[in-house]
Amino acid sequence: MTDHAPAGTTRPPPPSPADAPRSGSGSRPGQGVYLYAVTPGEAPYADEPHGGLPGGTRGDLRGVGGGAVRPIARGGLVACVSDVPLDQFGEEPLRRHLEDLDWVEGVARAHHAVVETLAAAEPTAPVRLVTVYTGDDQVRNLLDRRHDDFAEILARVAGRREWGVKAYLRRETARPAATPSEERSAPSPARAPAEPEGGGPGAAYLRRRKESLRGREDLWRAAAERAEELHAALGRLAVASRRHRPQDPRLSGRSESMLLNGAYLVDPAREEEFAAVVAAHSDRFLDAEITGPWAPYSFTMIDLGSDRDGGVR
Amino acid sequence: MTDPRSRPVLRESYAPPSAMPRESTNLGDILERVLDRGIVIAGDIRVNLLDIELLTIKLRLVIASVDTAREIGIDWWERDPWLSGKDRELVEENRRLRERLNAVEERLLAWEDRVELEPGESRYERPGDQADAASAGTPSGPGTHSGPGTRRAPGTAAGAARRPARPRDTERDRD
To answer: How many A-B residue pairs are in contact by the CB < 8 A criterion?
Structure first.
């Protein structure tokens, strides 16, 4: 896939004059090339070491481990990368590090910060965490081979932003609905004999428990329906929408059940309307919240498949 | 998970975009995105790397060339029993045991329901007091005559205590 490089693009580039030692073979012992995202753009000018990165980010954008983010340009695309030490990002050390959530958090936040900064300035196609290459040549190669895929993805997300919407079962409602009979009858056992089935404390307990479960189920069902409506309404406003698996409480940080974990690619002109729909669906059943704007992570989900045939040609 | 706090409310988060990295952004949201979305450029090494303790999210590590990776000694995935599937049997056994556990729990709940709805069915009737007999009628012997407080134990308290000890849901990632 080498036919995509426009004539004006420097094919045998001095891609990164500030980093002359790297530009020869494209790899340095002990160093990996960490890829954050692909954006549209041209090769940098020689007097601008970090030119080619989206506007406003030149020179001072730091990535994972504090490494300077630099562009690798090819055929109208720019891969935004930084160097990482393989003693951390080689597979054996990486495997150990990935079990260390603090380490993962540091890398994830650094990765996300770079992507977010890029996305604020340009159409951006984020790449999954810890996508590491062994040299610049491999990255150029990737841009050559996958040019059309990247171009298509970038065209889809250009000028739009991703918003997340999470809707939870509203807890304030859940509690009274789930336990009223318990609260009522516990302090006044006199009510128990009035129940149709009668019975002793054991039967009464079972009955209360069953009622409580039934109340919770009804509430859940109503809230789930509201969540469906919300997703459908947002989907009509958005250019594209995706529904992700509801987050586990450990991930969401909230103990309430998540009923909707949606992502929506929205044109700027409709963002106000979008927010209004979310607000309108926050009611006694649902607690709906917006997150974002995000880089279009959810709309660049694509598996570009194996690179086996394309390693170093 | 050092930042478990929830996102701000609607209006607050619906703010003008900012190029500033926001450290306060929920870590779960970030991890969900950077690990699970975006472009997957799978190199030759396509590894379902691990189950992060709290997040049960798979990572795929991508290195451009498997040959280069081998040259620098990166080949652990070929030896790892988790990845090469040698512990399938354990996982399978784990799954079977969990299914049985669920079945037992369901039967217990169903049984409670029946006791409540059809008190007359109890075989442990005491003359003149059907309902009381029903509520106390536990066929399993010990604890038969204890009150509801004790009967709650097998269904809820014990279940809650058991849960944290369960092995992680590694099987979920294999689906």
So the answer is: 258
